[in-house]
């Protein structure tokens, strides 16, 4: 029994630095995985914000009867409040004028720029995000 115990302690003593070496090999992958998860979370948040702004814009366009200056200005304000530069967003509101029952489509396209250089270097730098909402006009001309 003593010989078994001695053999076991000798083996354990020889592998003392093994855990640190294994952690050093895996730590880089763990950090990359953590940063990637954070970046995906930020990109999903941006997708939700774009969808919300598109919904709000479509609702206002449905009430006002299409693409008016007030609709475009409100969309720009909403994007600015959300922390997105309106100049970087490609938007389409169709049709320009809509009477009651006409379909109105609001499309927003944005290229989300990755914040973390390590993830950006591996994945390509940006992610295209699009939000599209379709609603019916409620505008009745007088």
Shape: rod-shaped
Number of strands: 3
Helix content: 55-70%
Element order: H for helix, E for strand = HHHEEHE
The biggest sheet, with number of strands, parallel, antiparallel or mixed sense and barrel status, is:
3 strands, antiparallel
The fraction of residues assigned to DSSP E strands is 15-25%
Low-confidence stretches: none
3D architecture notes:
The protein has helices at about 1-15, 20-65, 70-80, 115-125; strands at about 90-95, 105-115, 125-135. The chain has a 3-stranded antiparallel sheet with strand order 1-2-3, with helices on one face. The protein is of the alpha+beta class and about 140 residues long. Helix 2 (about 20-65) packs antiparallel against helix 3. The termini are far apart. It has 4 helices and 3 strands; from the N terminus they run αααββαβ.
Short key terms for the protein model shown above:
alpha+beta, 56% helix, rod-shaped, 142 residues
Detail the topology: elements first, then pairings.
Layout: H1 2-14, H2 18-64, H3 69-81, E1 90-94, E2 103-113, H4 117-123, E3 126-136
Describe the structure in brief:
The chain is of the alpha+beta class and 142 residues long. 56% of the residues lie in helices and 19% in strands. The radius of gyration is 27 Å and the shape is rod-shaped.
């Amino acid at each position: 029994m003593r010989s078994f115990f001695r053999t076991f302690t000798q083996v354990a003593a020889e592998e003392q630095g093994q855990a640190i070496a294994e952690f050093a090999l895996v730590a880089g992958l763990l950090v990359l995985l953590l940063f990637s998860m954070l970046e995906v979370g930020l990109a999903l948040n941006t997708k939700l914000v774009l969808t919300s702004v598109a919904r709000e814009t479509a609702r206002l366009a449905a009430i006002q009867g299409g693409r008016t200056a007030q609709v475009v200005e409100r969309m720009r304000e909403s994007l600015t409040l959300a922390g997105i530069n309106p100049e970087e967003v490609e938007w389409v509101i169709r049709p320009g004028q809509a009477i009651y029952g006409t379909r109105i489509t609001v499309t927003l396209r944005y290229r989300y720029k990755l914040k973390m250089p390590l993830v950006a270097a591996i994945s390509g730098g940006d992610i295209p995000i699009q939000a599209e909402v379709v609603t019916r006009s409620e505008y009745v001309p007088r």
